[in-house]
């Protein structure tokens, strides 16, 4: 595990996300606005498109870690996926996700769950484990982020079925850093192309999306 850590931020605290989702619940009830998609819809849609075209069956168990408003799951449901679970450590996020999806996709299951503390055995095994931003938030936690990240990696490994895929999108860690963090438990399957920028003669990406498979 890399010894370097991110600078702590309020984005790594549960209180920040509780306040954010309280506002988004109010906005949804007032105007039907389902809320912000972290990193933008384009970033989420690239991963969704890859999942839809990677050869997995539509009844494959899928879990979204830190599901927020449930955007990824509702879009997968729209594409015909039927076995979908979203977890988040904020009750307010789960309330929002249920409100957003209940009319069109009531089969999506949502649960309050803290990936760094709760027991994953109660969730079962999944063919696809997805994360967009949750590992980032864990890394921004002001209290012992390294131990929390290590616990997260162990939990994800325990959630994966024998042929399961773990798909992670990050704006704080590079592809190389993600591969280094997860390589002890998982092996790299694919790096998903993301938009790049050039600055000062160097090329970089705004986000990194990486697919791992269970060793």
Automatic annotation (TrEMBL):
Q: Which residues form the Methyltransferase domain?
A: 57-190
Q: Name one Pfam family in it.
A: Methyltransf_31
Xref: InterPro entries:
Efm4/METTL10 (IPR026635), Methyltranfer_dom (IPR025714), SAM-dependent_MTases_sf (IPR029063)
Task: Output the lineage of the source organism.
Answer: Eukaryota, Metazoa, Ecdysozoa, Arthropoda, Hexapoda
Question: What is this protein's function per UniProt?
Answer: S-adenosyl-L-methionine-dependent protein-lysine N-methyltransferase that methylates elongation factor 1-alpha.
Naming one, the record's GO cellular component terms include: cytoplasm
- Tell me which family the UniProt entry assigns to this protein: Belongs to the class I-like SAM-binding methyltransferase superfamily. EFM4 family.
- UniProt record, GO biological process: methylation
Presence of the UniProt keyword S-adenosyl-L-methionine in the record: yes
> What SUPFAM superfamilies does UniProt report for this protein, alphabetically?
S-adenosyl-L-methionine-dependent methyltransferases
Keyword terms, alphabetized: Cytoplasm, Methyltransferase, S-adenosyl-L-methionine, Transferase
Gene3D superfamilies cross-referenced by the UniProt entry: Vaccinia Virus protein VP39
List locations, semicolon-separated.
Answer: Cytoplasm
Recorded hits in PANTHER family, A to Z, give:
EEF1A LYSINE METHYLTRANSFERASE 2, PROTEIN-LYSINE N-METHYLTRANSFERASE METTL10
GO function terms (MF aspect): protein-lysine N-methyltransferase activity
Instruction: Give the E.C. number(s).
Output: 2.1.1.-
- The name under which this protein is listed is Protein-lysine N-methyltransferase LOC111360292
């Amino acid at each position: 595990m890399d010894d370097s850590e991110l600078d702590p931020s309020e984005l790594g605290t549960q209180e920040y996300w509780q306040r954010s989702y309280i506002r988004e619940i109010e906005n949804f009830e007032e105007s039907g606005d389902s809320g912000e998609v972290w990193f933008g819809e384009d970033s989420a849609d690239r991963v969704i498109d890859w999942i839809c075209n990677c050869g997995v069956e539509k009844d494959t168990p899928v879990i979204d870690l830190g599901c927020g408003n449930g955007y990824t799951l509702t879009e997968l449901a729209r594409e015909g996926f039927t076995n979908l679970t979203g977890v988040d450590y904020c009750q307010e996020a789960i309330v929002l996700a249920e409100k957003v999806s209940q009319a069109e996709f009531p089969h999506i299951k949502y649960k309050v769950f803290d990936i760094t503390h709760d027991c994953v055995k109660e969730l079962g095994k999944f063919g696809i484990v997805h994360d967009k931003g949750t590992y980032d938030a864990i890394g921004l936690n002001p209290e012992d982020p390294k131990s929390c990240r290590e616990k997260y990696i162990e939990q994800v490994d325990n959630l994966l079925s024998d042929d399961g895929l773990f798909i992670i999108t990050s704006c704080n860690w590079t592809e190389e850093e993600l591969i280094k963090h997860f390589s002890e438990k998982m092996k790299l399957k694919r790096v998903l192309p993301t938009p790049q920028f050039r600055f000062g003669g160097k090329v970089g990406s705004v986000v990194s999306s990486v697919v791992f498979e269970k060793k």
